[in-house]
Design goal:
With 72 residues, this protein is mainly α. It has three helices and two strands. 58% of the residues lie in helices and 8% in strands. It is globular.
Length: 72
């Protein structure tokens, strides 16, 4: 059972929905580093937020809350 609520995951989904190539590269590197399952094609990367480890979700949330605004 995840410590993250549906609303938190929905917020994360909304942040990732229009991800830039740079954001996608960060996500792919993180998923590989955490040994998470995903697929990738010309339309982007795909993974199930419900199946990600809490640690991975935490890093993604931190990226979109703190790091991404600094890069903008």
């Amino acid at each position: 059972m995840s410590k993250y609520t549906f609303r938190e995951k929905l917020w994360l989904y909304e942040q990732m929905k229009g991800s830039s190539e740079e954001d996608q590269r960060f996500i792919v590197r993180l998923l590989i580093k955490k040994d998470e399952s995903f697929t990738e094609n010309s339309n982007g990367i795909f993974f199930d937020l419900e199946r990600l480890m809490d640690e991975t979700i935490e890093e993604l949330i931190n990226y979109y809350q703190y790091v991404k605004p600094l890069l903008s």
